[in-house]
Amino acid sequence: RHSRPGYGLILQGGSIGVLYLTLFAAARLYSLIPLPLTFGLMVGLVVLSGALAVLQDSKSLAAFGAAGGFLAPVLTSTGRGSHVMLFSYYALLNAGVLQVAWFKAWRPLNLLGFIFTFVIGAGWGYRYYRPEYFNTTEPFLILFFLFFVAISVLFALRRPPRLRGYVDGTLVFGLPIVVFALQVRLVENFEYGLAISALVLSGFYVLLATLLWRRKAEGMRMLTEAFLALGVVFGSL
Fold it and tell me: What is the mean pLDDT of residues 94-121?
């Protein structure tokens, strides 16, 4: 990492991805490792990869490690695994993305987590979701939504002083659209389910805009106005 830093960082990121793949396959395909131990080791990998990326100020390391982690379930999928385990695993990975976002405004990593989480989640929903899975699916959708709302706020806060307050439009506006579209599928069997979902989203965004406004953080006006606009839109729905 000192003599050839680019190559060293790629090796570190690739090795972390391989470790994710090995742990996931050992636990899910061959039952060689108990699930509690597997998740404990994966938490360690999340912390390790995030720490290495931040300490070496390397977006590429963060991206390689995260991509390997997100792809592991796809590469080892048999179509018969537990969706709770899959989404719990993705929650761990997104906790790592949030961990990095606390220190660095790395938009590519944020978008990588967002795209992998919701594309794979939507694919699972299209193929396998059934109404009886609602109680084990809805909490994860809410959790992922909260993760990426927090990441979008941290992105605006962690920008350099001259760029502070600039928002990531893909996350700020794309996230509620994607989440609401998935929510449509989850609540289609509930009377007024969609109306209640829109009302809750509206209240959440209005509350968040109010908190940001009262905090009076420097340069956060644009993000506050964006959240307030989203609250009005969902309230109108």
Answer: 91
